Automatic annotation (TrEMBL):
Domain Anoctamin transmembrane span(s) in chain numbering: 191-630
Entry protein name: Anoctamin-like protein
Keywords from the UniProt entry: Membrane, Transmembrane, Transmembrane helix
A GO CC term assigned to this protein in UniProt: membrane
Membrane topology type: Multi-pass membrane protein
Keyword Transmembrane: yes
Transmembrane segments: 192-214, 234-254, 324-345, 351-369, 395-416, 508-534, 555-581, 593-614
The organism's taxonomic lineage, starting at the top: Eukaryota, Viridiplantae, Streptophyta, Embryophyta, Tracheophyta
Species this chain originates from: Forsythia ovata
Principal location class: membrane
Location in the cell: Membrane
């Protein structure tokens, strides 16, 4: 169901792909596994529709609100109530919980989790093995085994994927992807309701980042067009100070925006605290009374402490080993390759040969980075991380190290070793224009070409199977099969850990590093980046709505590890731009400590103070969000204390009655 659940409109949100039935079905009295699966879906209250495609059969699933509500109660979702507290969801008390802005009770992420809980927890509750048939193959469904997992392992169920809501998709196309007149304005609430919090946070960040980019773009354009003459060496430090202040303030105000969005969407992003609360709740529910709870916790305190310490240090050692492997591979393998390319680019005089060298370099480095990414994924899997979010963060740091070396070491070579600012500007222009244009073309054209090829192959195979007959030649591809043929929104590296936002954030991070770390050498780069980001908002939206499957929702409530990388790049930009200013001031290369160089050194320390000082001056969350959070925590603590006191009083009364009876 979608929108206002009071309406009876059926919206199919999950698709299950199974092979089409062959001619050899075996014994008709035996149970066909697909028919059994459909019957089990119906027994769980799901609305089922079977669609025959050109190559496969598709089972579309929808769920009434009551079915989703009962699944949410079993999963113990914590949802906000009308009194402002987050409490475990109960279907019988549904009116006590706050609904979404569109009138729906559950978000897309919550509905997807409910669907997974329903369909993957269909188990054989009998005491005997159920024999299923798939063509001429026999499948034994043993007691207690999940049916869908069994059929996936046997290759009967080929894939389970989320379906687009066609009405909402077309509405977002009109108001978002094709709405070029609003520039950075986006329907963030509608994006959140349709795609989930992680994708909504990305586009909120991209929109705010692009709006704030107008300030440095205007400054950079002024620096490029106006000839300041002898004042250039004074204007550049002023431009640099404005940039650092802008970057620091932007990320502080982004944190405030992020907190405000989460409060508006009723999301509690303190995952660690929530997991600890669930652990305490599960432990408490397994005991008879608070006295027994305290007794057991006291007895197991030393063992629990030793276990956590051992796990903590083991995880730290594994991460240290893997980080050392990545760093050594970068130093021993990638660094010589990057330096060789930078040296050849400096030596070659022909512009045509430089262009060919850059093209070959980009092709070679893509293969190298892909190989390094696969190694990083294997190393991350060896780490004993707590959850998927920690594994994804570890992968982000490792892969960014590879891309950092790939993207910037050649530029450092031109800037610091040869001190050739003209060549540095040429390299920056090539990287910004060539990389951004090629990246946009590839990320939008490859999904479309992949989908077109799969669609053409499906029609061709259908016609080959039906040669000599007119049946099926005019058959159109059903919409659910068109969605299945579209590529999944997955990361180019580590698909099992990250979705397509990995590549989008990586592109933003590399762009930010390039324009910030070499701002004094090429101020016009901010104008190029602003134009690219204005286009990126709409092309990314069009890619999600028209060229990709509906992504699997993820519950990440912040930009995570990418924020730390942005902060690292700000510190790096302070160092690199200070060195660039030194190169501009000390053109003879004597490196004497003169008043000008001393002023640059003092400016670097002042900027570092600004970087860490502004982070303390500007609060990370608005006052109203902080007040609401503290009020919620106080109410929860008050309610828990009252329940605990009632439980203790009840235990004392029972103990007194037992004592009197004896």
């Amino acid at each position: 169901m979608s929108g206002n659940e009071g309406e009876e409109e059926i919206v199919f949100e999950i698709g299950v792909v199974v092979p089409k039935k062959g001619e050899n079905q075996g014994d008709e009295s035996s149970l066909d596994c697909v028919d059994v699966l459909v019957d089990e879906f119906k027994k769980r209250g799901l609305i089922v529709e079977r669609v025959l495609g050109l190559q496969n059969e598709f089972i579309k699933l929808a769920a009434p609100l009551e079915i989703l509500g009962k699944a949410a109660a079993e999963l113990q979702f914590r949802k906000q109530t009308h009194i402002g507290m987050d409490l475990p969801f109960e279907w019988d008390e549904v009116e006590a919980f706050v609904r979404q802005p569109d009138g729906s009770l559950f978000t897309w992420c919550e509905r997807f989790r409910c669907y997974n809980h329903i369909i993957y927890w269909i188990v054989n509750t009998g005491k005997s093995v159920v024999e299923l048939k798939n063509d001429c193959r026999e499948i034994n469904w043993v007691p207690g085994e999940p049916l869908l997992r069994k059929l996936e392992s046997e290759g009967v169920v080929r894939e389970v994927f989320p379906l687009h809501d066609e009405n909402k998709r077309k509405k977002l196309l009109r108001s978002w992807a094709l709405n070029w007149w609003d520039f950075t304005t986006q329907p963030i609430d509608e994006i959140y309701l349709y795609y989930g919090v992680k994708i909504a946070i990305y586009f909120a960040f991209l929109g705010k980042y692009t709006r704030w980019m107008l300030f440095p773009a205007t400054l950079g354009l002024t620096m490029q067009l106006v000839d300041f003459g002898s004042m250039q060496l004074l204007v550049l430090p002023f431009f640099f100070i404005c940039l650092i202040s802008w970057a620091v303030l932007f990320f502080q105000f982004w944190k405030r925006k992020n907190s405000a969005l989460l409060a508006r969407w009723q999301i509690n992003h303190l995952a660690g605290a929530e997991s600890e609360y669930k652990f305490f709740q599960m432990e408490q529910s397994s005991l008879q009374s608070p006295a027994e709870l305290m007794k057991k916790r006291g007895a197991d305190k030393m063992k629990e402490k030793a276990f956590f310490q051992r796990e903590e240090w083991f995880r730290w050692l594994m991460r240290f080993r893997n980080d050392a492997v990545i760093i050594l591979s970068i130093i021993c393998l990638q660094l010589p390759f990057e330096l060789a390319y930078a040296h050849l680019y400096e030596v070659i005089g022909s512009d045509f040969l430089k262009f060919c060298l850059t093209a070959v370099y980009l092709l070679a480095i893509q293969s190298f980075t892909r190989m390094g990414g696969k190694i990083s994924v294997k190393l991350v899997k060896c780490e004993n991380n707590e959850n998927v979010e920690y594994r994804a963060r570890s992968l982000v740091y490792k892969v960014f190290g590879l891309y950092f070396m790939q993207s910037y070491i050649g530029i450092f070579y031109h800037a610091l070793l040869h001190r050739n600012l003209m060549t540095l500007r040429q390299v920056l222009i090539q990287r910004l224009i060539m990389y951004e244009v090629l990246e946009n073309l590839m990320e939008n054209s490859i999904p479309y070409l992949t989908y077109s090829f799969k669609k053409f192959r499906a029609i061709r195979n259908k016609r080959k199977r039906e040669q000599g007959s007119s049946t099926g030649k005019g058959q159109t591809i059903p919409r659910v099969e068109k969605e299945y043929l579209k590529p999944a929104y997955a990361a180019s590296i580590g698909r099992e850990l990250e979705d397509g936002l990995f590549d989008d954030f990586l592109e933003l991070v590399l762009q930010f590093g390039m324009i910030m770390m070499f701002a004094c050498a090429f101020p016009l780069a901010f104008a190029f980046a602003t134009l690219n980001n204005l286009t990126e908002i709409r092309t990314d939206a069009l890619k999600l709505l028209a060229m990709m499957r509906r992504p699997t929702p993820r519950a990440d409530a912040t930009i995570g590890a990418w924020l730390n990388i942005f902060q690292f790049l700000i510190v790096m930009s302070i160092c690199t731009n200070s060195i660039l200013l030194v190169c501009l001031y000390d053109q003879d290369g004597k490196w004497k400590v003169s008043p000008g160089l001393a002023a640059i050194l003092i400016m670097e320390h002042v900027l570092l103070f600004i970087k860490f000082g502004f982070s303390r001056i500007v609060p990370e969350e608005p006052a109203w969000v902080r007040a609401a959070r503290m009020k919620n925590a106080a109410q929860a603590a008050d309610m828990c204390s009252k329940q605990l006191l009632r439980s203790i009083s009840g235990d004392e009364k029972i103990f007194g009655q037992m004592k009197k009876s004896t």
